[in-house]
Amino acid sequence: MAKTDNEVSDSAVQQGAGRGRPRSEDKGQVVSCRLPAEELHAFDALCSQLGAKSRSDGVRSVVRMASGFLEFSREDSVKLEEIRYELGKIGTNVNQIALAANRGRAPMVKAQWASVDELRRSLPLVAKALSQIIAERRRQGVALFRKFVETQEGARHG
Questions:
Q1: What's the CA angle centered on 129, arms 125 and 132, to 5 degrees?
Q2: CA 108, CA 98: separation in Å to the nearest integer?
Q3: I need a labelling partner for 1 at 20 to 30 A (CA). Which of 18, 79, 89, 138 fits?
Q4: Distance from CA of residue 79 to its chain's centroid?
């Protein structure tokens, strides 16, 4: 019976599993492939867009994204860091305003005090919510990645 392309590649993968250096489950494995010049240029452009420092970083990002693991693009990472930075600056400024007002250097009316107090209460909650969103997305990404790995391991053993 003739093998299909998938069966041939599966068989080649299984045969290749014993070649080369001894493999440990905890160590990473090298994955390589050849790409035509056009695809390599497209991949390099994608690596730049993702902010990958090397092609290896780019391959890892693509694999993680394809399997549902959380990977922020360079733009998303920059935006999140900008938000965190700005929240910190705003919090510092609000605290300085409150300190100056408490020392009598910045007289404020009752409505202004209420606004400053509201900011002082709200900013830490906003920062905490942002951190929770990031943590939840990472948790979901890790869970998806683990499920993907388990599925792949099950397919190899089953």
A1: 140
A2: 10
A3: 18
A4: 13
Within 8 A by CB and 6+ apart from 72, the residues are 80
Distance CA 20, CA 36 (A): 26
Looking at residue 106, the DSSP 8-state letter turns out to be S
Enter the tokens of residue 129.
Answer: 């919510």
Query: For residues 27 and 47, what is the distance between their CA atoms, to the nearest angstrom?
Result: 24
Q: What is the per-residue pLDDT for 151? A: 77
DSSP code per residue over 5-53:
HHHHHHHHHHHHTTSSS---TTS---------HHHHHHHHHHHHHHT-S
CB neighbour class for 60 (10 Å; exposed up to 12, middle 13-18, buried from 19): middle
8 Å CB contact between 123 and 90: yes
Q: Which two tokens stand for residue 98?
A: 């409150």
pTM: 0.42
Work out the average pLDDT over 123-132: 82
Q: Can you read off the two tokens belonging to residue 100?
A: 């100056």
Q: Whole-angstrom Cα distance, residue 18 to residue 39?
A: 30
Phi, psi of 27 (to 5 degrees): -90, 150
